[in-house]
């Protein structure tokens, strides 16, 4: 079971008093979910970048370009979610140890044949989309409309990424 960012060795928050639209207790809960979303996004970013570097075969150019767009988008998304965590008064997770504890993405495997790497990225994007849906529902229940909308948008991105990658295997 993944530990919260606080139990993963990082301080809970920055100690500042906030008067935002989100209840203080809900802010901590939402920030913990966002920490998992950041870890998922950053780990998937690193894995997609590895595929980008190592893709081979007849569809090299198309997959190289597709994974380039996907890893760049993931980097931007992880940054936006980390900044939302800070806006909620909490500290964003940092470092591979924290990400490894918080993510559902496995990224320790050696290089594999291109079709196998693409299949993994499909499954990973689908898993992250499901987690984003879970986190979005929790943010909605907490009354955090901004985070809810951010996470709902992430669902669409991951489902589209999975579709595009899956289609490249056909």
From TrEMBL:
Q: Which Gene3D superfamilies match?
A: 1.20.1260.10
Family note: Belongs to the Dps family.
Name the record gives this protein: DNA starvation/stationary phase protection protein
Q: Where is this region: Disordered?
A: 1-22
Ranges for domain Ferritin/DPS: 32-169
